[in-house]
Specification:
This protein has about 300 residues and is mostly helical. The protein has 14 helices and 3 strands. Helices cover about 55% and strands about 5% of the residues. The protein is globular and about 60 Å long.
Length: about 300
């Protein structure tokens, strides 16, 4: 019998692999909420009483699980207006709440004292702890030492670049959709060709910040000397490819242990955007004044 993930892949052939994984995890969470150990083979479990149960949850959970219900129905080849209405209702309420720009209870509880800058300070502190590994031959590192440097690298990366969880799928060479590569003129870049909004926004290609480039110059030889799976991140045990889910867990656990705050990628993205609020407000005001969108506004920039 097909798994729910296989059903999702068949019902949504254009969905990114990361989206399929997210939907699968959310549907499993919805099934657990319904008292089930496994996702059933039919849609009968997606009941009115289960829908009411998720409506009583905090808004972000309501939204996530309402979407999961709709995706599950689609995977079964079914539709149900009640679930679609709930998805639209939760999405609208969530958008309205975000538009007010007020922190959620979860954001407030996990907001670091110095905002996004706290991640950069943490990366600096962690680098001091693993800097001695940079002087060792890459092939001489143990799995634990490689993992320790990797943990620093992930914090360093997210202290400068607020991607979703796509770092977990990045390869060490130009293969597949997501990879790092080096340009002679500008240095290291990360290319994300498969991500949540690729259909509407296209591939993401980022020139890495100087501190991240310095870290990758040290980290990449370690990875290549000790692994053969071709991806940037590895598990501590066995040095196998690290899954996206495990990378996100490592990120949350590390920030909780070191900062006392459990930072996931969504909150990191909010932190970075909030840190850039003044610049965003200035750009928005200029767009209103000129009557342009962001792309056209950039075309009016004149460089010497």
């Amino acid at each position: 019998m097909p798994t729910i993930k296989e059903r999702l892949q068949k019902s949504c052939p254009d969905c990114a692999a990361s989206s399929i994984n997210t939907y699968t995890q959310s549907i499993r969470a919805l099934a657990r909420l319904g008292g089930l150990d496994e996702v059933p083979q039919t849609a009968k479990w997606l009941t009115k009483s289960l829908l009411q149960k998720i409506k009583d949850l905090p808004l972000n959970q309501y939204k996530r699980l309402a979407i999961a219900g709709v995706k599950a129905l689609g995977a079964y080849g079914k539709t149900d207006k009640k679930w679609h209405d709930a998805m639209n209702d939760s999405t609208t309420k969530y958008g309205t709440k975000r538009d007010k720009q007020k922190r959620t209870k979860r954001e407030a509880a996990n907001w670091p004292e110095h905002g996004y800058a706290a991640l950069r300070k943490l990366a600096d502190d962690m680098h001091e702890e693993v800097e001695h590994l940079e002087r060792d031959a890459p092939a001489s590192l143990s799995a634990s030492e490689l993992y320790a440097y990797q943990r620093y690298f992930v914090i360093r990366f997210y202290s400068m670049h607020a991607l979703r969880g796509d770092l977990g799928d990045v390869r060490t060479s130009k293969k597949g959709q997501n990879y790092i590569y080096k340009k002679e003129s500008t240095g290291w870049h990360v290319h994300i060709g498969q991500h949540k909004t690729v259909r509407s926004h296209g591939a993401i290609d980022i020139r890495l910040a100087k501190s991240v480039q310095e870290a990758i110059e040290k980290f990449l030889p370690m990875v290549r000397a000790n692994t053969s799976h071709g991806f940037l991140l590895s598990t501590k045990r066995g040095l196998n490819k690290m899954s996206r889910k495990d990378m996100l867990i490592m990120l949350r656990n590390t920030t909780e242990r070191r900062l006392g705050k459990r930072l996931g990628v969504q909150l990191i993205r909010v932190l970075k955007t909030t840190a850039a609020l003044e610049s965003i407000d200035q750009a928005t005001e200029l767009q209103r004044e000129l009557g342009h969108g962001a792309v056209m506004q950039r075309r009016y920039v004149s460089k010497a």
